[in-house]
Write a structure and sequence with these properties.
- The chain is of the alpha+beta class.
- It has one domain: Outer membrane efflux proteins (OEP) (Up-down Bundle).
- The protein contains nine helices and four strands, in the order αααββααααββαα.
- A four-stranded antiparallel sheet has the order 1-2-3-4, with no helix packed on it.
- The longest helix has 67 residues.
- The relative contact order is 0.15.
């Protein structure tokens, strides 16, 4: 009975020994996992897109060198000649396309930053759930080990009773069956614990040892939650929602950029041209230089309906993103409400599961006393032991569900 009381206490309260806590493991995951670096890389790529978009505000400088070979010399051109050309062009107006391209690229870069923030939150949630999985498997192993030790003691006691003729062979075999089953359960629980530690090691990107974990994060039950406040925070701060809202702004800028195809284009051009009557420019006997300044206005009148199609396609993309935003908001709101329901139920079930353990312990104590006096059958004792183990497993399951809901609620409001 002392063993069972001690195990129940271990199940109810996590170890408070110093070790690696949840915040420390989450920091390790953010530093170690390559998936974070992938999204950091996307942010850096989006910043390069901004620089590309700004290129429209800078002049274009080109040089060329042309060698010509004709079948005969003409009045204006030698049969062997070369032309060196330098050209600077600067777009002065193109329907504000450059302005809106920069605006769109800047907004899309912000979208990538929100996606990076979201993946960090997801990763921290994965670490928290993996950590919770280790805690659950560890608690289950303690319950399984306690049941195994108790059934071993009962079986050894049964062997003594059998030898002196107090119980029959069939009663001893009942003890043996439950004893072996507890042995199997204990080994399975130990294997499950090792696998959960492996999973946690993967999530944080570093090999860890069970002895290095501090389960103090589970020493206190989560407090009640202001559901209305959580709902407002989620809609205002959730990364996926913010990313879609900004993506819609970016597509609106892309629409305006696409409309620039309907406007005229104005370019300032300065060029230098040098003609020489030899292949190597500057080595001939005759040459001609020309400096030219131009102001060129051009306007596309027809381009195979590509401008109209681009504008229409961008508008459809904006509409699609608005639908995505509405669907995501409704889905997250529904998920949040369901999490609240589970969280409230789990909080209530903690007291019920705790009371169940106390009752099962008392039942086992009484049954053990009666069995020792010969007033209870072997099956009654085995049932009492099983009932206590089931109550302890239920308590662990309730705690696991409670903290799982709490971690998911924290993720809902970007709370990690």
């Amino acid at each position: 009975m002392k063993q069972f009381s001690f195990v129940a206490a271990c199940v109810l309260f996590a170890s408070t020994a110093y070790g690696l806590d949840l915040a420390g493991m989450q920091d390790m995951a953010l530093n170690n996992r390559k998936i974070v670096q992938q999204y950091v890389n996307r942010v850096e790529q989006s910043e390069k897109d901004i620089l590309l978009a700004k290129g429209g505000y800078y002049p274009s400088v080109d040089i060329s060198y042309t060698v010509n070979s004709l079948d005969e010399t003409s009045v204006i051109e030698n049969n062997e000649n070369s032309i060196a050309t330098g050209r600077i062009s600067w777009n002065l107006f193109s329907g504000f396309g450059d302005k809106y391209n920069i605006e769109s690229a800047t907004l899309l870069s912000e979208v990538e930053r929100y996606r990076l923030k979201g993946i960090k939150q997801d990763l921290q949630l994965d670490v928290a759930l993996a950590y919770l999985g280790v805690y659950e498997r560890r608690a289950n192993l303690k319950v399984a080990d306690a049941a195994f030790q108790t059934l071993e003691k009962v079986y050894r006691d049964g062997e003594g009773r059998y030898r002196v003729g107090l119980i029959g062979k069939n009663e001893l075999l009942k003890f043996r069956v439950d004893y072996d089953d507890a042995d199997i359960t204990k080994k399975a629980a130990a294997a499950g614990l090792r696998k959960s530690v492996q999973r946690l090691s993967f999530q944080i990107g570093s090999t860890i040892d069970l002895s290095g974990l501090d389960f103090g994060d589970f020493a206190r039950l989560p407090a009640q939650i202001d559901e209305q406040d959580y709902g407002q925070k989620m809609l205002a701060e959730r990364s996926e929602i913010k990313a879609l809202e900004i993506a819609i702004e970016a597509t609106l800028s892309q629409e305006k950029s696409a409309l620039s195809g309907y406007y005229p284009r104005l370019d300032a051009v300065g060029s230098y041209r040098r003609y020489d009557d030899e292949y190597i420019n500057g080595s001939g006997s005759g040459s001609d230089d020309e400096l030219r300044a131009q102001l060129v206005m051009s306007m596309n009148l027809f381009q195979g309906f590509t401008t109209e199609t681009t504008v229409s396609k961008t508008k459809l993309k904006t509409r699609s993103l608005r639908y995505d935003l509405e669907e995501l908001s409704n889905l997250l709101t529904t998920d949040l409400e369901n999490l609240f329901i589970d969280f409230r139920v789990s909080l209530e079930n903690v007291d019920v599961a705790n009371r169940s353990i106390e009752q099962a312990e008392e039942n086992l104590r009484i049954t053990q006393l009666k069995y020792d006096e010969g007033l209870q059958r072997e099956t009654d004792l085995l049932d009492a032991i099983t009932s206590l183990s089931r109550s302890q497993y239920n308590y662990v399951a309730v705690l696991r569900t409670l903290f799982s809901n709490y971690f998911q609620l924290t993720r809902m409001i970007e709370g990690f």
